[in-house]
Design brief:
The complex is a heterotrimer. In chain A, strand 26 (about 755-760) and strand 27 (about 760-770) form a beta hairpin. In chain A, the strands form 8 sheets. Chain A has an 8-stranded mixed beta sheet. Chain A starts with 15 loop residues before the first strand and ends in a 19-residue tail after the last helix. By secondary structure, chain A is α/β, with parallel strands linked by helices. In chain A, helix 2 (about 120-135) packs across helix 18 (about 580-590), helix 10 (about 275-290) packs across helix 14 (about 335-345) and helix 10 (about 275-290) packs parallel to helix 15 (about 370-380). Chain A contains 27 helices and 31 strands. In chain B, the strands form 3 sheets. A 5-stranded antiparallel beta sheet of chain B has the order 9-8-7-6-10. The N and C termini of chain B lie far apart (about 60 Å). Chain B has 5 helices and 10 strands. By secondary structure, chain B is α+β, with helices and mostly antiparallel strands. Chain B has 2 domains: about 5-100, no CATH class; about 110-170, SH3 type barrels, CATH 2.30.30. By secondary structure, chain C is mainly beta. Helices cover about 15% and strands about 35% of the residues of chain C. Chain C contains 6 helices and 16 strands. In chain C, the strands form 6 sheets. In chain C, strands 12-11-14-15 form a 4-stranded antiparallel beta sheet, with no helix packed on it. The longest helix of chain C has 10 residues, at about 25-30. The chains are: A alpha/beta, B alpha+beta, C mainly beta. Chains in contact: A-B, A-C. At the A-B interface, helix 12 and helix 23 of A face helix 2, helix 4, strand 7, strand 8 and strand 9 of B.
Chain lengths: ~900, ~170, ~290
Amino acid sequence: MAERIVLSSAERPKEKITHSICVGGPMTIHTIDGVIRRVRPVVFQDDDPAGWVIKARGKEYTPQRKMTMSLLGYCEKDRTYAYDRLKYPMIREDFVETPDGKNRNTENRGKSGYRRASWDEALSLVAREIKRLQRTYGKETITACTSSHHSWGLVGYKISLFNRFFSMMGYTRIADNPDSWEGFHWGTPHTFGYYWRLGGPEPYDQLEMAMQNCETMICWSSDPDTSRGGYSAQESALWRWWMKEMGIQFIYVDPFNNYTSVKHADKWIGPRMGTDAAILEAIAYVWITEGTFDKEYVAQHGHRFNEFVDHILGRGPDGTPKTPRWAEELSKVPAMDIKAIARRWASTPTTSGSGMRGGFGGACRHSNGTEYARLMVLLAAMQGYGKPGRNFWGPGCGAPMNYDFWFGGYSDPLASIAKAPVADDVPMNPVQQVLYRPNLPDAILNGHYEWYGEGFCGGGIDLEFTRHVYPTPGYNKVHCFWRYGGSFFGTMLDTNKWAAMYKSPELEFVINQDIYFTPETRHADVILPACTNLERTDIGEVGSSGLGGYCSHSESGNSWQLIVYQEKAIEPLWDSRSDFWIFSQVAARLGFGERFTEGRDEEAWAKRFWQFSDLPKQMSWEDFKKKGYYVIPVSMKEEDKDPKTGLFQNWKRYPGFNWFAENRACDTMNHKVFQEEHLLGTFSGKFEFVSESLTYWAPDDEARRPIPQYQDSWEGFKSLSADNYPYGLISPHPRFDYHTHYNQHAKWLWEVPKNRVLINGNPYLVCHINAKVAEQKGIKDGDVVRLFNDRGSVLCVARVTYRLNPETIHAYTSSGIYNPIRYGERYSWDKGGSINVLTPGRLIGDYVPAMAPYSCNIEVEKADPDPNFGQGWEFILDEVDRQQLETERPIRTSAEADLIFGEKEACVKALVEKEAV
Amino acid sequence: MDLEKKYLLRLPDENLVMTKDELAAHVEGILKDHPSEFMNGYRVWYEGFEGCGMPSPDVYEVIIETMRAMDGWEDIGPMRWEKYGVVNPSFKNLNYASAAKDDPNGNFMLQHRFHLGAHYQGPDGRVFWIPIMEDFNMRGFERKDGKYVGTMVEIDARGEYASQMVEVK
Amino acid sequence: MLKTPMKKPGIAINAARCMACYACFMACKDEHCGWDTALSKSQPEMGQYWMNIVEWERGDSERRVKTATVPTPCNHCDNPACMAAAKDGAVYKREDGIVIIDPEKAVGQKAIADACPMNAVFWNEDLQLPQKCTMCAELLDDPDYPGFEPRCVEACPNQALVFGDLADPESNISKLIAANKVTPWKGLTGNVVHLNTPQKFLAGTVAYPKELEEVCIGAKVKITCDETGDTYETETNWAGDYEFEDLPEAKTWTVEISFPGFKTVTYTGERTDVDHYVGITYLEQE
């Protein structure tokens, strides 16, 4: 492949600098004449405010004067000019626009080629079909869904733009499940309330609290250097080194000795999959029998503790004392290690947490996940949760923040063009029927589905138990799916089920609006090419200045709070357009165009977010656009600065959960009325060792028992399937990707040896296998192996390691690549690394509509790499490229687009001719 | 045979047996000077008594009867509770306006003074929607002619202006 | 010359801080893939790693595993092997010490790529050109460029990479080097200084007699190197674990474990060919 050599720097004119944000962090983008030159972090200037200083144990700690990015931010250019960008609207080659929606060759979806179409043809087809479908079946026959983290920016984000369009048009909404933290969401509200925080704890000011008071940190099912607080770039990595260097002991519990634990852990234990709850019960056993828990605190703040004691000591109905030896039998973690950890936890100020924000972690995405989560909270309570150094927290959040400055955060319900105050005309979806995302395929394929709960139940415990039936009585079934942004092939479980769904003739029409030719995009009838957020204007924040992150201040994972004017860096590449343009066009064709846009363009909408915030008091719109960002100082008061260093040593602090331990009215952000009466969100207002809300709502719930406890999994080492598939698969959130959004597009990621290995042009995903297991099976480091069970097979490259217990195999989830060897065929071996081919579609329980990817049994064997060169679907895009077409405006194919990594001849000129528009 | 009906209350440390009058007296004690604006029988049972498991129907009946008979509480029929779902009957605190607005330690109870998400009209006639209450600040947006205008507004909950605000629909 | 003049601009690489996030790796690719600069031709999209990260797993047992992760850009050596192998001045070392391959003169000279003892020079088949890290000198020379550090250093979230003037004893980089252990990569010296690259560890756990299921806290552990006679001592911690870090490789050790009331246990012939977990020592009563 000839190299693209562009722009000798001797000829280089001045660079333009803009800013934007991606899931890897905030970016400074340098462009030269319409081409992105580089993506750098945001490095602060002298006139940006001073940072904070945490004073702890005789030293002072302050962050670097810049925001960091994870590796993904540095891939943004590679990703923008990616080989798999959607260049033009496309229509499936064998799609037939039959008048009755039948006989459209739907069984070929996922296999068919595409033909190029003009925007007019594509949009007209979409509008025509929508009208036909609505006329025939009603508005409810259209359903649509986004991925969780499609594209950063408050205008373009799914709760904003997508929500506005579809609510206005009317559609069957697909409720999301809290995929990343199921066990906490469905579990801990029944233990300590916090349903409005979706089961997670208060992170406020916990970094300082820990640095000043903690001696032990327990990171259970936690890999913060990888999960990075979610969207907190890599900011907190430095904090963890501070904490390590000050001598805080780190205990990591994870079947895989993960990337953070292998650097930080003073002690790592690797339990067998799904046995975390047993170890927690055993730790409680040690505390109870040795009397080393906070008796006063529990007496005051615990409800029905005595019954929990009976259960732990074996005086309960099951008669089994939850001894460390009992836990060892199940988990394979030696009893002596469990006891040592229990004693360390009790005897030193210990802060514990699960996953990246305290209330996350893969261990809760398991059939026993709710019980694990509830026990994590109860054990923290037994040691005085909320007292100095004793909190429930993940070391990736809780930095000093200015809570007195409000700007709409990422996923903040107030920061949406579908809601007030930003929208004048707030659309109300007229369709009551709802579908549930994890089981969308079941609903479509079976024509019927029932479940409990609203998906995200932040509005109340009662919302976990609402009864849903599809189709809702009086409504018709769904016959059209409009998929937007990102791929469920890779993230949703039981991938082959999704492939089956797409082939079903029940779905008469499938639209996919995306930036890339993702695995899911390849299953559409019509493909609408959207542009990245570097090619359109938006506004956003990093650090959760307002709410944000799906519950109040769930972030505070950055050392700085930044608001960014996400100015368009380059024009949309090829014939892609912004999502806003696409939706406006369809809206216009459907007769609600003006209502949809309210006469505003994207910049005007972006300005609305600035307007309805505290930012106008600090910066005019013009100044903000010019500078490109605003750093919110942790305090606005000069007197809060340390005169020696000029850093802020004071700011308004609201240490999380401190109010509860100190018996006063809650003063932390976003609290409930009853918290002011010193009550938690449980029925009794206390920590419920026996859950009243479960007894009230779901007394026969077999997944969540009134007393949380270990239970064998319906797919675990004691299941029948373990006979054939003896290994537990652990599939955590990926280190080298963000939910499918990078791995297929940014080839640089294929060069990270721990991520993927290129063989015959295919980037195989890395999996980890214990050294002894590998030896038994004749597998060497670097061999291609097949991971398989009844649901399918995935080819990976093996890394042989001691970072795993012998009962577990590790491979990251959310593969951006899904690639059946026999292209478009279900159950064909996937060589893209889509581990979710293997995971079960079964929900945790009848009353717990949650995904459980950690309950997965597999086998592994050596395999031969697929000898066919390449990923196997590039030929489809190449074919479309070769097609000629008259379009409404000239396509920007030349110099710009092919510039960096395209296929055509080398280009050395700096200047690109601007098209006539 | 003892003909007086007894009520069994399952509580964490011990089970108590009470007569109807004793039970009613406990209920009244729990509700006296209660700071909450709304109550229901489950709150009395779980928070007030620290009851274990669902209240038995006869105990629950007495709780409701007692609440209905009390001067300070009005039966408002069904109301949705985030914890319990729809509870019928629920009760409104008639003494709420003068009920405690500081916790027992003297800490300010912001959401006992103002409703989160409600609209308030200030003494100058301006109407504000208050969707955020953080610390002692209320933050919101001014509503004018059916739209939200201006920029974010911060109102000191302890200040003059706030004390004269009236809730409007 | 750098726009902010430095006598000896250098990068300190602290393996004790690096956690292999690959931000530096990607930042380098972002800067150089597909773009010529004043000092270099563009790197191909894939296949070259001017900022490479060398990783290896440390430990032969699940009970104690660590990783070493060492970013290894070109060392900008004092005595560059690539310069020695180059003809016609195709490789030159600037006054400030930065080593540059001239993208015009070096065409066809594969020997330059082959000469590097740390594989930091890559051969571009299409351009017939050896290529490597420039320490982003072309950026730092440029008064219009708004940054002040090489891209890799700027990207590092952890201060595992630090840039500054090695010739200034008051600079942060010099102070950092003075306070840490210098561990030359492959024995090379130059404008890149490696710190704290680990050698080998010996680790283990001490426990009471097995049936008690208890770790032993405060047991004394002493190791002696057969070859050098050096000895080190420590005590087991709250988890019953002991560890000796940064021991010389390929040595033989005697490990002696003692705790009052129990028989002293001695292991001989424990090798540090690899990072080694001695084992769980179950004490026996005296």
